[in-house]
Amino acid sequence: MAFLSESEATGLLKKVLSFSKADECEANLSGGREGNLRFARNAVSTSGESDTLTLQVQSSYGKRTGITTLNEFDDASLEKVVRRSEELAKLAPENPEYVEFLGPQAYPKPAAFIESTARVDPAYRAAAGLASIDPCKKQGFVAAGFQSDYAGFAAIANTRGLLGYQQETGIDFSVTVRSGDGTSSGYSVADFNDSTKLDTGALTHVALQKAATSRDARAIEPGKYTVILEPAASVDLISHMITSMDARLADEGRSFLSKAGGGSRVGEKLMDSQVNIYSDPYNPEIPGEAWADDGRPRKRVDWIKGGVVSNLSYSRYWARKKGLADEGTPGLGRNRNHSVGVFEGQPGFIMDGGTASLEELIKGVKRGVLVTRMWYIRPVDPQTLLFTGLTRDGTFYVEDGVVKYPIKNFRFNESPVIMLNNVEALGRPQRANGSLVPPMVLRDFTFSSLSDAV
Amino acid sequence: MGAGALVAPKWSWAVPSFADITPGPASVKKKLADVALNTATSLGATYCDVRIGRYLNQYVITREDKVENLVNTESYGAGIRVIADGAWGFMAVDQLTPDAVAKATKEAVRIAKANAALQSEPVILAPQKGVGEVSWKTPLTKNAFEVPIADKVALLMDVNKSALKAGANFVNSLLFQVNEQKYFASTDGSYIDQDVHRIWPVFQATAIDEKTGKFARRASLSTPCGRGYDYLDALPSGKRPGVTTRYTDSYDMIEDATAAGAQVREILAAKSVVPGQYDLVLDPSHLWLTIHESIGHATELDRVLGYEANYAGTSFATLDKYRSGNFKYGSPLVNIVADKLQPGSLGAVGYDDEGVPAKKWDLIKDGILVNYQKTRDQAHIIGQKEGDGCSYADNWSNVQFQRMPNVSLQPGKEPLTPAEMIKGVEKGVYIIGNGSFSIDQQRYNFQFGGQLFYEIKNGEIAGMLRDVAYQSNTQEFWNSCVAICDKSDYALGGSFFDGKGQPGQVSAVSHGSSTARFKGVNVINTARKI
Question: How many CB pairs under 8 A join A and B?
């Protein structure tokens, strides 16, 4: 029931819209199957599946609007959810910033659905878990990991004739391998649309290697260091930056991209010339979603080009207010109030890199710190987009191009804007957390204190 | 609710129906639950619990003079958890018919049996005597879901207007209301019907200086809580006067917004902190988050044992430290209590999501680590015989696991007010409100910001500071606790969105304290240039 075909989904949405008595009505439907297997202490801790199907209806009278969601689908419930959104809209005051719904749009389908992933079952998950746990057990290490998979769809329709349907699959795996005495730890992570690309044994081997070589970590003084960030270490910091590039906040003077004297810093070169960051839902490595929450089609967008801030995201209201010729570019961040069902991932970004492998990058570093993973990244100052967080699960000192010894973890206080202005070298991009990110060498990364955590 | 009367509404005063704000009859849910329990038992499961839940949320979202969104969400379904062949299996279902529930139960058993091959030892569940057919409801005098939308909109419009009038350039405000209608049944013989309510009024005021391009923000000093709309009654008894008014069990949102509008301009002009060692005087509106991160999470037994190693991490508060009986987590003044009974708290329930009655127990006594938080399948690991009532799932579709109860610092026994505490500080920072937060995966190294920072010089407040964050190590920090104000200063703080687990789930939890003083903590300056 939860995974609806295009004809089932659009049929259901048309039925929903047929109940509408409002000036306009838009309905989003999403659902699918999610399954997961979680293990810890070299054994399965939880595992399960869920089927979900969620309907969100937004009704508007003039500039008054209300949103309701429901997950019951008999005809009476469908009418009920429409009536509730209408009732809510009638209770709402007029919003002068209301923008009418979009009319029909073209949504080419990203190649995001892979049949093999949709067929993943409890036996597959158990085997994937075993391939990770078994080598750890045999070598006297302790594995904790998580494998999740989903097959879902999203559909949108409104009374102005907009109609869209998209399917997506995904599979994620991560594992943290610790020594039995808790004195060392290693991590490995991967995500794909296609389950046949996932090799939990190979990924666990990487984590095992890191755990085996990170015993007896030495303390080195906090301060500014050249760092080699693996893609899994840098992806979240960069993602925080891209999702913060909102035009309205910048124009209003309350963003890291606000300019003294007013206006935004679009067109300014804030980062190293090697930095090119864009998004593209049709990239075959990270196929994304065809439309944003408000129905605007997603297209390729350059966010940072040659280190210059190239584009900011706009709400449709702000795009009109600012006289943009088109509807403006939707942001990569999601409005969580609108996010329903299994389509909950954030659209990814792509950062260009070079051709060097991580190992080749390390060879070029005189003195530096190799970071596997960053943890508990939180904003400190929105003025400069300063974030704090910690290294974790495999931090090593590099000297003369060689990984010399494991070091204790650091807390950092750093802005991705400053960090990407200090680029020394970029390697070959690889998929990390739904984005394509190169391993990177950065100078003067700010570590502000030591952590005893392993 | 005086605020609603100040603005003449242009729209209807009706209550928008959630048709289902009244939980359905328990007898209907019992029949459905029995289908799952009987199916599981017939397939050889040794334990089964079923949670039938209807989850309602309402958001009123505004900025300045506009309502951006009114959103009602509702979700209904069941989660079925079994133990078969010694392993857990879970399946969620959104079709609540006897056939669909039976089918989902069969699938949960199939998953458990597939997992049994990977199990090194069978799940051992601490016994829990069935409690029969019982019910529990959050004590409240005004159900927020029964309050007209127009009242809520009027309040937030007044809040925004107050902040703007007082000096803010922008203000966003939000009223977030939650109702969990949860029915739990298990093969232990429990049939538990609960109606849980939570509310969180929150705003953020922003001031800008266009000339310099600088801006500053100040968030509300409210707390999310396990109360009804009565939390917004602005009763004088809920106010604590001081350098700014702070709130306990009743919140004056308009007064706080007025203060924020003025303070956010003060922050813009405030002195940037000189980094170094300071004595910190931490208000309950701030300290709750430090308690949450450095004690709440560190004393979760699942983390200690390694069940969260891949994501949230493990804990420095290891079993050997606990078993030693003399691990000095904090100074002798530090008494930390876990409590699922505390009225008005986010964690208060009658029973947890595995049928264990709510209770209260010590985690740290006179500075010594004495216990953990645990679920039924963990109790045997540390030689205990019962769960602590700490099992929770944020939705019917997610599996329940160990979640934090309210974890609170007990007030000082000697009479002491914040003003008296400040008088004794030579060089310090007084911090009100929670801000930035981060802690390592074993809960040693942390960094916290705040909303309002006041410099203390020779026992006096010497003005406002900005760019403040403090860094410390959990054990050092709690051992530097040299004074705690008395119970007249006690207040709860808390979070609606405590994240944990894979797939990630949120949980709502409160942390109480009185204002406390910590000696010689490292303060850093967070200002940068880009």
Answer: 295
Q: Which residues of A touch B88 (CB under 8 A)?
A: 44-47
Can you state the angle between helices B26-42 and B98-116, rounded to 10 degrees?
40
B316, A453: Cβ pair inside 8 Å? yes
Chain A neighbors of B445, CB-CB under 8 A: 390, 409, 411, 449-453
Smallest Cα–Cα separation from A440: which of A204, A283, A271? A271
* Same domain (yes/no): A220, A208: no
Establish if B374 belongs to a structural domain: yes
Count the neighbouring beta carbons within 10 Å of the beta carbon of residue B192. 25
What value, to the nearest 5°, has the Cα angle with vertex A263 and ends A259 and A266?
A: 75
Residue A146 to residue B309, Cβ atoms within 8 A: no
Range of the domain at A102: 6-212
Structural domains counted in chain B: 2
Q: Are residues A90 and A223 in the same domain?
A: no
Q: Quick one: chain B helix, strand, coil %, rounded to 5?
A: 25, 40, 35
Cross-chain CB nearest to A50 (options B115, B397, B438): B397
Residue B380 per-residue DSSP state: G
Residues A229, A227: Cα–Cα separation, whole Å: 6
The three-state secondary structure class of B2 is helix
Place of tokens 């419009």: B157
Q: Does A224 contact B at CB distance below 8 Å?
A: no
Asked whether the beta carbons of residue A91 and residue B108 sit closer than 8 angstroms, the reply is no
Whether residue B189 sits in one domain with residue B92: yes
C-alpha distance from B109 to closest chain A C-alpha (Å): 10
- Whether residues B342 and B265 fall in one domain: no
User: At A173, which CATH number?
Assistant: 3.30.2290.10
Identity of residue A156: I
The reply to whether A299 and A319 lie within a common domain is yes
Q: Please report whether residue A299 resides in a domain.
A: yes
Instruction: Residue window 342-371, chain A: list those with CB within 8 Å of chain B.
Output: none
pTM: 0.95
- From first to last of its 530 residues, chain B has per-residue pLDDT tens of 222 223 322 222 334 445 456 677 888 999 999 999 999 999 999 999 999 999 999 999 999 999 998 989 888 999 999 999 999 999 999 889 999 999 999 999 999 998 888 788 899 999 999 999 999 999 999 999 999 999 999 999 999 999 999 999 999 999 999 999 999 999 999 999 999 999 999 999 999 998 999 999 999 999 999 999 999 999 999 999 999 999 999 999 999 999 999 999 999 999 999 999 999 999 999 999 999 999 999 999 999 999 999 999 999 999 999 999 999 999 999 999 999 999 999 999 999 999 999 999 999 999 999 999 999 999 999 999 999 999 999 999 999 999 999 999 999 999 999 999 999 999 999 999 999 999 999 999 999 999 999 999 999 999 999 999 999 999 999 999 999 999 999 999 999 999 999 888 999 999 999 999 999 999 999 999 99
Residues A254 and A364 placed together within one structural domain of the fold? yes
Q: ipTM above 0.90? A: yes
| 8 Å CB contact between A361 and A353 | no
CB-nearest to A453 from B212, B213, B444 is: B444
Query: B205 and B84, same structural domain?
Result: yes
Amino acid at A124: Y
